[in-house]
């Protein structure tokens, strides 16, 4: 499929998502809205030429509060995770101002953090803790930035406060992007001075990618200190990345998204 044609289909898919939110979401239950977001995200990554493969077991969407913490490589990360389960993301406030994309993110439950305002951290922490106590699944990228996928940068410990306050479980997740031969690729990386438009076109011109998502064993956030919790989650993802680089098989069998439903 030609990249220009793929881009047109992606733009059409974005508009379809916007119309669904405007016309249907007000009349749907929370469960049905979540299901439609998951289906929509799966369609989006498919249109981008990305095949998602999952290892491990994800948290329940509703149940005990769960905080997913993942390494951050691409603008695709959110959609890849959403294609597997519905989760409420924590994102930088700048994304809220992106045309259409920011509005879609807000309407699908994203919580925005104004990083330039120290006072906003207390607000978002309290809001996250409330959602976790109610049994929701939240997700964030504690590196605070994107990388090319070859490393895991130190996690910001303050982002783990809500999990401790709610005594939720923290779920480390490793995200990798591979080419069609199963080798690591930089095609999906959205970092440094790369613009969103450049990154999107790089993905479309790649000829196809595989997003590998590994859910690692959860970490109970009871007692302890936020710094210890952050370091434990960071180490788990870094070790999983090292194992993947050595070609070590995941601890649990791989499953395609459709096999979990």
User: What is the N-to-C succession of helices and strands?
Assistant: HHEEHEHEHEHEHEEHE
Q: Radius of gyration, rounded?
A: 18 Å
Helix fraction bin: 25-40%
- Specify the number of helices: 8
* Rough outline: globular
Q: Can you identify the CATH class?
A: Alpha Beta
Name the poorly predicted regions.
Answer: 249-261
How would a crystallographer describe the biggest sheet? 9 strands, mixed
Q: In terms of structural class, how would the helical and strand content be classed?
A: alpha/beta
User: How many domains is the backbone divided into?
Assistant: 1
Q: Which assembly state applies to the chains in this document?
A: single chain
State the end-to-end distance: 29 Å
CATH fold topology:
Glycerol-3-phosphate (1)-acyltransferase
What share of residues are in beta strands?
15-25%
Question: How many strand segments?
Answer: 9
Overall pLDDT, averaged? 90
Q: Label the CATH architecture.
A: 3-Layer(aba) Sandwich
């Amino acid at each position: 499929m030609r990249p220009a044609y793929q881009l047109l289909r992606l733009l059409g898919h974005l508009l379809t998502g916007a119309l669904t939110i405007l016309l249907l979401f007000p009349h749907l239950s929370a469960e049905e809205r979540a299901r439609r977001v998951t289906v929509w995200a799966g369609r989006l990554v498919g249109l981008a030429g990305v095949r998602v493969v999952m290892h491990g077991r994800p948290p329940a969407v509703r149940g005990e509060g769960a905080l997913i913490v993942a390494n951050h490589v691409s603008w695709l990360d959110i959609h890849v995770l959403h294609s597997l389960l519905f989760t409420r993301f924590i994102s930088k406030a700048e994304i809220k101002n992106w045309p259409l994309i920011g509005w879609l993110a807000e309407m699908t439950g994203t919580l925005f953090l104004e990083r330039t305002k120290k006072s906003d951290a207390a607000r978002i922490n309290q809001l996250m803790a409330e959602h976790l106590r109610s049994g929701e699944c939240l997700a964030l990228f504690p590196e605070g930035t994107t990388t090319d996928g070859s490393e895991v940068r130190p996690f910001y410990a303050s982002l783990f406060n809500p999990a401790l306050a709610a005594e939720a479980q923290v779920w480390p997740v490793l995200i990798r992007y591979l080419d069609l031969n199963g080798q690591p690729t930089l095609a999906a990386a959205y970092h440094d001075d790369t613009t969103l438009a450049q990154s999107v076109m790089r993905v479309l011109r790649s000829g196809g990618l595989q997003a590998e998502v590994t859910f690692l064993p959860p970490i109970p956030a009871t007692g302890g200190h936020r710094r210890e919790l952050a370091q434990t989650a960071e180490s788990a993802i870094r070790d999983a990345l090292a194992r993947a680089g050595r070609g070590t098989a995941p601890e649990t069998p791989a499953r395609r998204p459709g096999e979990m439903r």
